[in-house]
Specification:
homotetramer, alpha/beta, TIM Barrel, two-stranded antiparallel sheet, 8 helices, globular
Chain lengths: ~260, ~260, ~260, ~260
């Protein structure tokens, strides 16, 4: 029985504010990317999210981003690759400590927002992220966008690369995520998104907007939980994957 | 030959701003308390300070404080003991990761500013700090104000307590640091401060403002480096200690 | 036909986060207390809120609070009365400029959260707030909790005091808002809250939890919009006030 | 007797940190560009700087920058021209209110760091800054880099443009400030910088690195005060200007 991981971004509130329905998502996903206080999240939210993930048997990763609460880490900020190493190391350490405090443990790192976009195609930045992880804890996996520069960077650094696809995002023929600002970049229909994900798994390939197939290993599917609709789409995708014979399981230790 | 540790607060800049002469202090002290980004410090300053301390054979600790750049961690902020656990865990993890990234390793934790003041006499807060350290890494030491609630809290939690005295601060008869707002609380004369420190070491006791002796173990002396005058006082104290036959050595592994 | 003002806290998001349904509330209230970036709000949200209030004929005030995004301005922070003057002046000026930029104009100031709680009973802080407003623009009104120290402080400073009551909060016999942490402090039943507000208006008095009547001028009723339920309560109160023969009108110029 | 203004950036500390010697500079310059809390400065520092400038008869301007304490406003952040309008309006209002609170009044606006660099050559951004100032207070002047896009933008908006030159910075033949990263961009020799300033005033032209003359009106010279050396250079320039027969006078009302 083949197995697949579902991952989502959680713990994206700050102080009095919340984003998405973390409780619902922790019943759906097998891996939770937890914000580390730079683009979202704070020590209270992190501790609560790690504890809840532990209780529900969900693996956790440090979701590292630019220091930019105002822009939610979605703005490309002018940090050098060397500075990005320190940004990643700081957040990773904070997440490891709070996970341990909450009885859980971080098993991977994922880049958020603009940092992920840059690391997708900029080899220097992808390597900087991998170097920072190696320096802090080389046993961690890197949850990387399939076919991105991150995959090669992780492997060169001796890190395990986990390949993820997006059910609800269009791909260019270069294998890159289409920019959110382009029409059709986000697939809002749950049926279409689910069909897409199943097709990519069946073919072992990214399916691009023009219909091309780009072969890749697929270990995880990224889903979203920031709206009620997104939660429903994630639940439908989970059900469809199970219906198609997949076991839902974290790629890394969840306990 | 008896040995003693000298510790100072370093890495207390933020972004474009600097505080004190870290380079000079790293030639004087044997342990550096490095700010972790909450009351001062940022990932760049932390990495640079850890690397420099490593190069000079100076041990490093996570100097944890309230999240309060504006107030430099000196304002008593209304955090509960449980919230303080998360505040400490977050900063400690960030410091451990950046120290590792810089080739060094954190060997202790020290509380800064208002958090230190509260933990000096509030048993609940002292225990919260100790619990957080234990949860993250029970092999670390806690650099605690001699005769404070922190000493007992560390020992109850199974942490090594390191007892520190202040050469340039007056003590009340209850063994507490006199408030900076009181006259005579800060001893600005280097000769007087040095004589005080030697007397306390010789007697194995705090010497209070009224002349009382309060017996205590003494492992470390805290010095300051925020002004040119403070750096000179620290250097004189170091010379006097060596002249009096003390070996200057970190209480914890510096390499 | 007697007239009454309804005010609510709006623009309480920050960056990617939102709080409450500002659009719905701007159709209900006659005065909007707009957060100024210290406890919530940012320059984008402020400009949008001022513009929308202008379009809907709603008066706007600067809702000033402690600089504390993390604590949403609800934590009593250790600022002196003199420091509070500068905190108020800064935020008021920022709000005035963005209101003008958006084609509107600030006609009053209201204190938020912990600053409001302190100014309710601490005469020094109440006077500091009034002095700051006078220094920046003495033509502004101060929207003050009825029977609080703010009323007297405003009047001493030569500012117009606008007296507000809370439909959904219990009062102590000293005329203070009961702490949110006490049972019964928040009245969640819309029928009860509406009846309370009408009774207080009819009697020209605060009705305390024990049933006492404390006579006061009443110019405005504060309502909340942070939950869907709160929006419904505000709408019901508005309807009930109109049903009881009140004209809903801002106490200050809305255009 | 011809007159000239000397301006410098002041109030560039934050919380516990200070930058430069504001007291010394306020005895040298005739106009002080006061940071408004976004790239540096806070309400306490602003109030103190405005009060001191008032006491010394120095005119004050709002020194507006990107919201970026960590990067000191020197990093080009991805804000649109429309967003820059709100950034400028917010800071300008805050500065006006605190100046009024301190008994002074803001008479001009100057852009800081990366915002100034962008506005120097990007017409859209230059116009956004001018529009924001007009919306808040069209009686203010814009202190603009001579021959920059800001000059035309101010004039189109109906604002008074004040033309400034830099004594200690090299110019390209396009009339732009050479990037700080290029060799020779900053002139560190006081004699050379002073001679340059006098030559530009005498010729009514920028002198470029290659020796070209680019005619321009010159109303003000920008000097720096962030190091002891910089303060000395500013003092020498002031003395040389007076020796050459210039009256030192603010271009705008200083009282």
């Amino acid at each position: 029985m083949p197995s697949i991981d579902l991952n989502a971004d959680l713990g994206e509130g700050f102080g009095p504010w919340r984003m998405g329905d973390d409780d619902a998502m922790l019943d759906i996903v097998t891996s939770a990317n937890v914000a580390c206080g730079f683009h979202a999240g704070d020590q209270e939210i992190m501790a609560r999210t790690f504890a809840l993930a532990k209780a529900k048997g969900v693996a956790v990763g440090a979701h590292v981003g630019f220091p930019d609460l105002y822009g939610f880490g979605r703005r490309p900020l002018p940090f050098s690759a060397a500075e990005i190493e320190r940004i990643v190391a700081y957040q990773l350490g904070a997440a490891q400590a709070l996970a341990r405090y909450s009885g859980h443990r971080v098993s991977y790192v994922k880049c958020h927002g603009a940092l992920a976009n840059i690391a997708e195609s900029d080899r220097d930045v992808a390597c900087a992220v991998a170097r920072a992880i190696c320096a802090v804890d080389p046993t961690l996996a890197l949850l990387a966008i399939a076919l991105s520069e991150q995959v090669g960077a992780a492997q060169s650094a001796g890190l395990r690369a986990v390949h993820e696809i997006y059910a609800d995002r269009a791909y260019t023929d270069a294998g890159r995520l289409a920019s959110r600002r382009e029409q059709g970049a986000v697939i809002e229909d749950a049926t279409a998104a689910t069909a897409r994900a199943l097709a990519m798994l069946a073919e072992g390939a990214l399916v691009t907007a023009s219909g091309q197939r780009l072969p890749t290993q697929i270990d995880s599917i990224c889903v979203h939980g920031d709206t009620q609709r997104a939660v429903q789409m994630a639940r439908r995708l989970r059900d469809a994957l199970q219906g198609a014979g997949f076991a839902l399981a974290a790629f890394a230790a969840a306990r």
